[in-house]
Design brief:
Blueprint: H1 5-13, E1 19-20, E2 34-35, H2 38-49, E3 53-54, E4 57-58, H3 62-68, E5 73-75, E6 78-80, E7 85-88, E8 93-97, E9 103-107, E10 112-116, H4 127-135
Antiparallel strand pairs: 1-2, 3-4, 5-6, 6-7, 7-8, 8-9, 9-10
Length: 142
Amino acid sequence: MLNSKEEQLAFFQDKVVSGWVADQQGINTAGWGLTLTPMDMAKIGQLYLDDGIWNNKQIIPSWWIDESTKEHSRWGKLSYGYLWWIIDNKEHIYAAMGDGGNVIYVNTKKKMVISIASLFIPRAKDRIKLIKEYIEPMFEDC
């Protein structure tokens, strides 16, 4: 819960913050302030890759995985689902891209999840290019 400008600045400067920012009533902001480790981000990606199953238990309905990762709107040439950008509809590649360069990337055809957590970079747009050109090719023979 952030009660002042000083607390907000401290939140952005802290290196070990986790969780989701909430207002004075304990309501999460939902639009910003979610802090996750790269491992937490990868777990979300893996949950989606596995159609909502975690530890042999269905915790998100598979229909929701399908629904949230298909196009519902467009931003210029980019397709957007429910909090997921559709990178390649044919190969079913999608990514959650957070503020400043944080990414959860899921390639269902290659059974691959990649998470990137970074310091804030305004208008970071190079993450998908980085993944497709440099990270994915390292695993072509796996």
